[in-house]
């Protein structure tokens, strides 16, 4: 195997596949990055067996030459050293060449590294996914859906299924739901041009976080294919493959109250910074609980009290307030997460009493829903 | 105590004094920040008893009003909460008021915090230092001296005196020396307008690192006063007080070889990035050892070899090379630290054989000296 490649291209491909590489994988060879040279371009692969990422660099693209003097072949290089080497090489191009003894020479300017490679035949084959049954979604939109839900997955391994995001596609609507059983986040978007339907697909939150980091905001689309136990996200030069979580995702629709007793509308940023301030005294000891109290003249009081440290109160003006008086306590962290996920200037919050879950939505958009269970205080 | 203060001023003062506050100080009240309001302005104090920092905010400065409605008094507030509160308050001004029960009310816009304060009389008195015997040095220059030496202090507590930087002032020359017994860094600067002399003053490296963070690059001067066991750095609105280390600093002058067998001159950045690359394969296992070998035609080879991972070689061209042939191994980390500290384009390195310490200096400046002990390799 031999080729000469533009270093910037190689750096960004290596960064992408590194997102899947673990320092302690199940199979030792997965500590490496697989490099495959074909006449038409170079493919890098990284995997921890849960997530696998392939990044492709075409020989030529839009008239620019990315790779030259390609001699086909493949090799696996230690991920612990290869990325730093590529990043710190002195020149704009890098020559990579392997010999039959699996020695790999990396040259750039006057710098020459000779690394011990591993046999690419020992690197596990990635499952091939039929991509006939697939649908497309703009990258920006997918990133939005991930950001608006994935923070609500559980970090506890007691109910592993809750560490994933539940994906459903039916009637041309794609829906993401995440819950850790104390709060829930959901987002829907319409998908045209597909007859595909699936439900009870659960993608590990960790996979979606990595995917979100790799996908570059753009108006291009990502193609999504689902099998029994794998999901594939494919863009022009990237394949991102994740295993799915086994098990049944709980029915969440019934958690969402249908009738409300108190409803308020507030400016998102104003509520967010008020809650943020009120949480300053709470810190770890009391799980960051703050209290919301409705008052006369559309005022809302946010307060928190930590006997040893002190207390804080602040009033904000609601844009709208209707229904019963209310005094409710909740985790400021959950509220801050939910408000940050709603990218609208105004939110509507609907309560059904101090002990029932409440729902936060943008004022004029039903596709985003955030639900939080209150905290009982005495 | 009561005053209304510009929030930006308060934030930067709080950040400064926080550099001295420890979360586990010897005396519990030192987890707090002392606030003292006088008719002429506000003084904040933070201390961990090794380092104490006072930051002053004058009532008025250059015609701008920083503090209004001052009622004199003092209080101590928990450093765990106060800085975050100040940083996140909604308005440009903050009102701070304490009552006889040590309750402190902090108001900004509609936000109101009531914190439990502590009696300022219980806060230890800082030692007063006679500032008659003092000298001045531009802030930029002092920061340079710290950066060029402090990285070489020892981090091991086995010889506590080596965790500090040795300061000497004699014949109108101020000299900083630091060594961890494997390498040494020194810097001299001329000081005019003083008859002051001192030697065997050792300031903890940690104190100088904090001082360097607080001092803002400028052409103003800092006034330095020394007593038996304290050193005071004083700028217009800041007092930075550090204890000195007890004990005798070793005699270091005799470590510096007077005669050389091989001398090279190289471009600093070129050598730095070459050593940096050669150290990539070394990582932890072999303490980052790289080898330098002189070759024909003024070439220098930098190489490193880690049997399990691979090897790296790179040649750079010396600007000048004279004396005996040489093959020498040393810690790449020490070399990188030393080269970064020398802020000149070209360095001269003088060797006295493979087993003797070698000396790195800027080509045309004798005031900076870096010394490194080689590593024995077989």
TrEMBL record, chains A, B:
<dbReference type="InterPro" id="IPR022635">
    <property type="entry name" value="DNA_polIII_beta_C"/>
</dbReference>
<comment type="function">
    <text>Confers DNA tethering and processivity to DNA polymerases and other proteins. Acts as a clamp, forming a ring around DNA (a reaction catalyzed by the clamp-loading complex) which diffuses in an ATP-independent manner freely and bidirectionally along dsDNA. Initially characterized for its ability to contact the catalytic subunit of DNA polymerase III (Pol III), a complex, multichain enzyme responsible for most of the replicative synthesis in bacteria; Pol III exhibits 3'-5' exonuclease proofreading activity.</text>
</comment>
<comment type="similarity">
    <text>Belongs to the beta sliding clamp family.</text>
</comment>
<dbReference type="InterPro" id="IPR046938">
    <property type="entry name" value="DNA_clamp_sf"/>
</dbReference>
<feature type="domain" description="DNA polymerase III beta sliding clamp C-terminal">
    <location>
        <begin position="254"/>
        <end position="376"/>
    </location>
</feature>
<feature type="domain" description="DNA polymerase III beta sliding clamp N-terminal">
    <location>
        <begin position="1"/>
        <end position="127"/>
    </location>
</feature>
<keyword id="KW-0239">DNA-directed DNA polymerase</keyword>
<dbReference type="Pfam" id="PF02767">
    <property type="entry name" value="DNA_pol3_beta_2"/>
</dbReference>
<dbReference type="Pfam" id="PF02768">
    <property type="entry name" value="DNA_pol3_beta_3"/>
</dbReference>
<dbReference type="Pfam" id="PF00712">
    <property type="entry name" value="DNA_pol3_beta"/>
</dbReference>
<keyword id="KW-0235">DNA replication</keyword>
<feature type="domain" description="DNA polymerase III beta sliding clamp central">
    <location>
        <begin position="137"/>
        <end position="251"/>
    </location>
</feature>
<protein>
    <recommendedName>
        <fullName>Beta sliding clamp</fullName>
    </recommendedName>
</protein>
<keyword id="KW-0808">Transferase</keyword>
<dbReference type="InterPro" id="IPR001001">
    <property type="entry name" value="DNA_polIII_beta"/>
</dbReference>
<comment type="subunit">
    <text>Forms a ring-shaped head-to-tail homodimer around DNA.</text>
</comment>
<keyword id="KW-0548">Nucleotidyltransferase</keyword>
<dbReference type="InterPro" id="IPR022634">
    <property type="entry name" value="DNA_polIII_beta_N"/>
</dbReference>
<keyword id="KW-0238">DNA-binding</keyword>
<dbReference type="InterPro" id="IPR022637">
    <property type="entry name" value="DNA_polIII_beta_cen"/>
</dbReference>
<keyword id="KW-0963">Cytoplasm</keyword>
């Amino acid at each position: 195997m031999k080729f000469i490649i533009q270093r910037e291209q190689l750096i960004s491909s290596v960064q992408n596949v590194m997102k899947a590489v673990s320092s302690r994988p199940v199979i030792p060879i997965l500590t490496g990055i697989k490099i495959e040279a074909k006449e038409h371009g170079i493919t890098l692969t990284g995997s921890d067996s849960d997530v696998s990422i392939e990044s492709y660099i075409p020989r030529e693209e839009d008239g620019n030459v990315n790779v030259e003097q390609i001699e086909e072949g493949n090799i696996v290089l230690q991920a612990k050293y290869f990325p730093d080497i590529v990043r710190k090489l002195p020149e704009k191009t890098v020559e990579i060449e392997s010999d039959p003894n699996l020695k790999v020479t990396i040259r750039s300017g006057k710098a020459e590294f000779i690394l011990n490679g591993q046999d690419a035949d020992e690197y596990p084959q990635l499952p091939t996914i039929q991509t006939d049954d697939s649908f497309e979604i703009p990258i920006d939109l997918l990133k939005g859906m991930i950001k608006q839900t994935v923070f609500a997955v559980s970090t506890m391994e007691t109910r592993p299924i809750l560490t994933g995001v539940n994906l459903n596609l039916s009637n041309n609507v794609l829906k993401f739901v995440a819950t850790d059983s104390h709060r829930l986040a959901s987002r829907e978007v319409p998908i045209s041009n597909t007859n595909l339907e699936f439900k009870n697909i659960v993608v590990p939150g960790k996979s979606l976080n990595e995917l979100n980091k790799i996908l570059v905001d753009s108006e291009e689309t990502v193609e999504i294919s689902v099998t029994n136990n794998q999901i594939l996200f494919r863009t022009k030069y990237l394949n991102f493959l994740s295993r799915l979580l086994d098990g049944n995702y709980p029915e969440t629709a019934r958690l969402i109250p249908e009738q409300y007793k108190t409803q308020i509308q507030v400016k998102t940023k104003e509520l967010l910074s008020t809650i943020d301030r009120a949480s300053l005294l709470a810190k770890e000891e009391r799980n960051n609980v703050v209290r919301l109290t409705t008052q006369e003249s559309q005022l809302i009081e946010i307060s928190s009290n930590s006997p040893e440290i002190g207390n804080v109160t602040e009033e904000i003006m609601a844009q709208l307030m209707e229904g019963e008086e209310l005094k409710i306590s909740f985790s400021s962290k959950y509220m801050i997460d939910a408000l940050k996920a709603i990218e609208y200037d105004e939110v509507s919050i609907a309560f059904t009493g101090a002990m029932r879950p409440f729902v936060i939505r943008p004022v004029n958009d039903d596709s985003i829903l955030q639900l939080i269970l209150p905290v009982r205080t005495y």
